[in-house]
């Protein structure tokens, strides 16, 4: 009985694990599609779920308080999907992924693609140059984020400007490699921001 007591004390004193949100992979959808969102890989005990989509116009989110929400794509565009999970102690974590909705009627042929689309960092072709930022430390910040967690990478991607279509494609490209290895993210950083 005395041998069992330390084991019981160790188990009862184990540190609680803070929640960790996992919204799943990025996706590309045709207009009108319904996408199943799966936040069930989020970690933590007794979690509550809260999905949101930005921009809210053009997309309908159902069962937003469930780990298994659905997104209905009603307008073409780029949507940020955010999952917040909270445990009973009130600790929360937020993570993001994205969905791009394409209108099949406006689909382009491969011959219509520009160099940024065809030779992106994820294509393996490696276009020279790419988006350049005036900040000297963008390369360094990107490479540091590449070494971090998925949430840290998404936070970095969200710092990229999104005011023009070219810059939005860089943000989308950044977010699309969220679940890749640190080395693949680092290669992306080098191709986009480092000389």
Report a brief summary of the structure.
The protein is 28% helix and 22% strand. It is an alpha+beta fold and 195 residues long. The protein folds into two domains: 17-107, Immunoglobulin-like; 108-195, no CATH class.
Provide an overview of this structure.
This protein is α+β, with helices and mostly antiparallel strands and 195 residues long. It has two domains: 17-107, Immunoglobulin-like (Sandwich); 108-195, no CATH class. Helices cover 28% and strands 22% of the residues. It has helices at 4-12, 115-118, 138-147, 150-157, 165-176, 182-193; strands at residues 27-30, 34-36, 48-54, 59-62, 70-73, 77-86, 92-102. The strands form two sheets. Strands 1-7-6-3 form a four-stranded mixed beta sheet, with helices on one face. The protein has a three-stranded antiparallel beta sheet with strand order 2-5-4, with no helix packed on it. A hairpin with a 5-residue loop joins β6 (77-86) and β7. α3 packs antiparallel against α6.
Biggest sheet strand line-up: 1-7-6-3
Strand content is 15-25%
Average of pLDDT: 78
Profile the largest sheet: 4 strands, mixed
Percent helix, as a range, is 25-40%
Uncertain parts: 118-135
The tally of beta strands, per DSSP, is 7
Q: Please identify, by name, the CATH architecture of the largest domain.
A: Sandwich
Structural class computed from helices and strand pairing: alpha+beta
Gap from first CA to last CA: 66 Å
Q: How many DSSP helices?
A: 6
CATH topology of the largest domain: Immunoglobulin-like
- Domains counted in the coordinates: how many? 2
| Oligomerization category of the chains in this entry | single chain
Assign the CATH class of the largest domain: Mainly Beta
């Amino acid at each position: 009985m005395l041998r069992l007591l330390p084991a019981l004390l160790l188990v009862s004193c184990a540190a609680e694990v803070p929640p960790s949100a996992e919204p799943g992979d990025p996706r590309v959808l045709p207009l009108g599609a319904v996408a199943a969102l799966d936040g069930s890989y989020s970690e933590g005990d007794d979690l509550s779920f809260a999905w949101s989509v930005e921009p809210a116009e053009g997309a309908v989110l159902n069962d937003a308080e469930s780990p298994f929400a659905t997104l209905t794509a009603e307008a073409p565009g780029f949507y940020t999907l955010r999952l917040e999970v909270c445990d009973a102690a009130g600790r929360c974590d937020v993570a993001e992924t994205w969905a791009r909705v394409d209108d099949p009627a406006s689909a382009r042929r491969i011959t219509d693609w520009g160099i940024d689309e065809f030779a992106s960092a994820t294509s393996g072709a490696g276009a020279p140059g790419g988006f350049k930022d005036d900040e000297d430390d963008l390369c360094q910040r990107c490479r540091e984020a590449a070494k971090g967690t998925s949430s840290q990478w998404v936070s970095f991607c969200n710092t990229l400007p999104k005011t023009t279509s070219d810059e939005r494609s860089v943000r989308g490209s950044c977010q699309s490699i969220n679940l890749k290895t640190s080395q693949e993210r680092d290669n992306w950083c080098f191709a986009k921001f480092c000389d």
